[in-house]
Amino acid sequence: MTVDGTGKAAVVAGGPLRAASERTLGLRRGKHGMTVLLLDKAQVWSGRLPAGAGALALWVERGGHLTVKRFAVTGAREPMVASYLPYDAVGGAGEAWDDWKVIQDPRFTDGTGLVRLREGGRAKWNIRGTRVLLRCPKGPDGALMAVRIDGRDAGVADTRASAPEPSAAVFLSGPLPAGNHAIVLTPVRAASRWTAWKSRAPKLSTFNMVAMPGSPAST
What we know:
Elements: E1 2-3, E2 9-10, E3 25-29, E4 34-39, E5 42-48, E6 80-84, H1 86-92, E7 100-104, E8 112-116, E9 123-128, E10 131-138, E11 144-149, E12 152-158, E13 165-172, E14 180-187, E15 189-190, E16 193-194, E17 207-211
Antiparallel strand pairs: 1-2, 3-4, 4-5, 6-17, 7-8, 9-14, 10-13, 10-17, 11-12, 11-14, 15-16
């Protein structure tokens, strides 16, 4: 099956599968997207399967179980973008889920975002790559967010605007050393008080990490 950027899956081919304790799965791509699927070294499907850059994964249905001993991919490495969702940031920061609310809004990259219900707090993504891009909607309820990368000040993300705007880039880092990095967002002090993450809180949208050649990324 294929899965697009919004998580919508499309089944390319399917069929019955006899019981077995172990299986060998092979996927070969040729010119013009011609693809061959092999199961236990026997061809079970072939056809045109165009695909853009992205992640390769094994899909297990609900209630299923899969143990993988080896997952190998051959070919030349190319730049890719791995997206980290707002849920990753709340969990990465060890925040209480009761302090956050899921909202549905077409302004978000994926149509879903999070907003904090109380003052304070922070968001933290643990990523792997060589550059980071933060995307958020803007509007009258936006605010300033301090961005720290690996414990050092990296800049400010401004999500304020006079009218609601769809999700767009609000912060782009400089080049980072290949490897793991911690990205932390916190409210910026405004005048003599902390900017609340409540009514004028910055809403968390999709956080995109760009992984360059030589720096394999996990999503």
